[in-house]
Design goal:
The protein has 283 residues and is of the alpha/beta class. The protein contains 12 helices and 6 strands. A hairpin with a 4-residue loop joins strand 5 and strand 6. It comes from Streptomyces blastmyceticus.
């Protein structure tokens, strides 16, 4: 999926530069067949090669260059010593699918998610993340838990800074009712949801049990949207042992429509924050 999307965008940039694939190959000292393989997504490409092509095409926009770098695997460094993603230090601990997810998340401009069982990772407290990790990995060694919790907390940096990620989450009421880690941990997590929900770029919508009967139309999912390039949107479905990435326009339309429907059935953002605070107050 990534190779095809990256290849398509590199082809578009080449065409904007008014270069043929043969001319582009000559500009960077490659065979034309390598350009063709990259643009069709039939072969992988290093971040250093992407940078070389973008230089040849006169692409100087740092935001676009960073996004295309993420598509080719931003967790690694190229031969010129390009800056590694912060998660590089955890590359031996995290599965490739999780590294892919993190790199996409770090470059996305908007994230829409439906959660039916747990609080989204970007909104978790350390204590809640610790309890979820222990449960998911069947009580792993404490040092592994702490490393994974540090990764989850570091991920939340996308909600801060000059251009924070726009996050819209639909939460089934069950997410708020499950006492993950015990009552005290859950109380802290609910307080954190209300506090984070006050950020202008975070919108929370609770689906009360009275309205969530239709939630069976789908399971949890995430929709990533990216700046500048609309057709890079992707849907991610998590399974027990892997993640599934959907890129077809029909899939994107279906999940976008499902999210819109679910949000329409959910409480407003303001009423959702009151609802969460009410649960915490009655705990």
């Amino acid at each position: 999926m990534r190779r095809r999307k990256l290849g398509g965008e590199l082809r578009r940039q080449r065409e904007l530069a008014k270069l043929t694939s043969l001319e582009a190959a000559h500009a960077v000292g490659w065979h034309q067949s390598k350009i063709s393989r990259i643009e069709t997504g039939s072969s992988g490409v290093k971040s250093s090669d992407v940078a070389l092509l973008l230089d040849a095409y006169g692409v100087s926009d740092p935001e676009l260059r960073a996004l295309l770098g993420a598509l080719c695997g931003a967790g690694t460094a190229d031969a010129e010593g390009a800056r590694r993603g912060w998660w590089y230090a955890y590359r031996n601990l995290l599965p490739p699918a999780y590294l892919d997810f993190i790199s996409l998340e770090s470059e996305a401009s908007r994230l829409r998610t439906l959660e039916t069982t747990v609080v989204p990772g970007l909104l978790q407290t350390p204590a809640y993340a610790r309890a979820v990790t222990r449960a998911a990995l069947n009580d792993p060694p404490p040092e592994q838990v702490e490393k994974l919790v540090r990764v989850r907390m570091a991920r939340q940096s996308v909600l801060r800074g000059d251009r924070p990620l726009e996050l819209c989450a639909v939460l089934d009421e069950a997410v708020l009712r499950h006492e993950v880690g015990g009552r005290e941990v859950m109380a802290g997590q609910l307080r954190h949801l209300v506090e984070t929900g006050s950020l202008r770029h975070v919108r929370l919508h609770v689906l009360p049990f009275s309205r969530s009967g239709h939630i069976g139309i789908t399971g949890p999912f995430v929709i990533f949207s990216f700046p500048r390039i609309a057709d890079l949107d992707v849907v991610v479905l998590d399974h027990l042992t892997s993640s599934l990435y959907l890129e077809r326009k029909e899939d994107l339309r279906a999940y976008a429509a499902a999210f819109t429907t679910l949000r329409a059935h959910a409480l407003s953002h303001e009423n959702s924050l009151d609802f969460i605070a009410g649960i915490n107050g009655g705990a």
